[in-house]
Amino acid sequence: MVDSPAKLSHHPGSHVAVLLALPLPTAYDYRVPSQMVLSDGDFVRVPFGRRQVNGVVWGAGLHDINKSKIKDVVECLPTPPMSKVLRLFVDWVGAYTFSFSGAILKMTMSVPAALEEPKPHFVFSLNPSPPIFKMTSPRQRVITVLKKGEPQQELGKIAHEAEVSTSVVSGLVKAGGLLSQRAAPTFKIARPDGNLPGLKLSEEQAAAGEVLAGDVVKGGFAASLLDGVPGSGKTEVYFEAVAEALKQNRQVLVLLPEIALSAQWLERFERRFGAPPLQWHSDLGPTIRRNTWRAVAQGQVDVVVGARSALFLPFSDLALIVVDEEHEGAFKQEEGVIYNARDMAVVRAHLENISIILASATPSLETIANVKRGRYKLLQLPQRHGGAKLPDISLIDMRVEGPIAGHWLSPELVEQMKRTLEAGEQVMLFLNRRGYAPLTLCRTCGHRFKCPNCTAWLVTHRRGVGRLQCHHCGYFTTLPECCPSCENTTLASCGPGVERLLEEVEKLFPKIRTEIAASDSITGPAAAAELVKRIENQEVDLIIGTQIVAKGYHFPLLTLVGVVDADLGLSGGDLRAAERTYQLLYQVAGRAGRSQHPGRVILQTYMPEHPVVQALLSGDREKFIETETTAREESKMPPFSRLAALIVSGPDAVEVDRVASLLARKAPHFDNVLILGPAPAPLSIIRGRHRRRFLVRAPREVNIQHLLTNWLASYAVSRGIRIQADIDPYSFL
Ligand code: ADP
Ligand code: ZN
Hints:
The chain is built from 20 helices and 34 strands.
């Protein structure tokens, strides 16, 4: 959407409200200096205290400020102005997440360097016919570097290799020994082509694709849920809508939950559209971030695929947003501004007045409820592409068929692994637990290793340097030989992590090639892509993975998936425990037998009657959704109500308790609003901060933010205490 031409201009001497990219409660007023005319949305630099900071012109000045006090805008930055829609979005997300707009603005301006014109960039080469100049040994080294290496090099690189300061290089340019030349821009943006033919779609696929592409043609807000079993071709189908946006020369944003692991997706995109999309995630270097941000703002980028933060990029002409694996908890950001990128994506699509597609094989109950309310269109793909069969799922009741103590794989699972491996096919074992063992204790005195900063056990890791590690705050220490409390060498690991499972597998099948896939072994896109390649090329026989392997991969020869502990996610007082476990295991099961080879999935469980386990076994997803939906409705939980958590935290437990009980006394009383707490959070100490939680439940028609505002108005700031709201909480820790 483009701003209307009648943009409000602010002339010299007038006051403008500038929202700063800082967590402050309001915008600040500044004066437009002579020779400058500003419009709403302009990026500006302004004085703030003793520094200068970046912000955006948010409108006309609001405050009646003493003329002698108001400060001038320093500079209007050479960047296309922020669109009105994005400004509205910033305010909207701020209000919804109970955060300051400036904190949201900061997310949209995450690369301050991108606000400046890129500095021209020079390369240096030897002057073929140099004048006579004084030769020194540093200068000689510079010349040697250029003679032996690339004939054109950058300043920093030459200086580094010749072991001289950069002034030696510039001195040589002055003396005429070197030539300097403006380098060609290295950041090239390939343009995906929407007119290339896609795969030949099945009738069902084509019908869904037409609807989605049709929405892009029509324009206007349209939200659809693309619901299809794993392998049904959801990606190919939403590519039809992407193609349509590309034909119109407009922009597309695709959000993936775990961009670091999206190598296969990127490859498919490039095959389909002849060029890769631009990526946006936290692993990118500063230069590429700067270039990408700027190119998006200037409308030079057609498609961005990214993690949740990509939602805050300054697209100038967005036509479509896709949220793939929409049910994923990874879309929820839990630190800083707490928001759910899937939900905020729908908001942005609404404000931009464009299409949004939510895709999943296991849609969230929230999204299903939105379909039932008629807000989202439903498009279903009930079949795997090419007639590949859904895997055959069976249970192992660990109470009767379990392994001997200290082992985690039941005899039946081991037997199936053996057969699969002998047939030259691949096995995946799924265990959602990193490290070697989740708990280490002393058999003599019972000492357990606890994190000094958190209410959590330390997890033993043995790969590389053995250590005990906290999975909440990152604290770690070396694994001692003997118990720090009684000094006996009787430390014992309790329970399995992926590393321990590998040990068992290696004993059973010493000859096979194994690989662990967990977030600490697969640290970025390159490592993930490499592993995917090796699995595809059959250089790996067995993969032991945590939840990172559940997502979207397609391995033709993977025919057996063993879920080592199907019960793992089911305990704990988490609202979504059943839903999440179901989704995760269903997705994991979907990895098996995705081509012509039929797949098998074996679930090891101690709770064979559990509804989640039964739903997986019967393959009756609708039944599961129905049961779970009814349970939520009866307990008045989302999506049938609104929830917000309020977390009071601070370094001093007494002060935290004082503030929490003060808030409890001032809690609002309404018939239909339930406020629970304050209770110590399940992880009552994280990173040395004590935490108390309130949980607020209200009917959907109640404005919960408003309620929180009124409630917190009674509270006077107390040192070291932080009160954080989490609207629509996902984590109950
Ligand atoms: P989903 O996202 O629903 O799990 P994908 O889009 O990943 O499904 O498709 C699964 C596999 O089937 C992919 O390898 C994809 O290329 C292939 N596929 C899907 N639709 C077609 C089609 N119409 N023609 C050929 N291959 C297809
Ligand atoms: Zn910790």
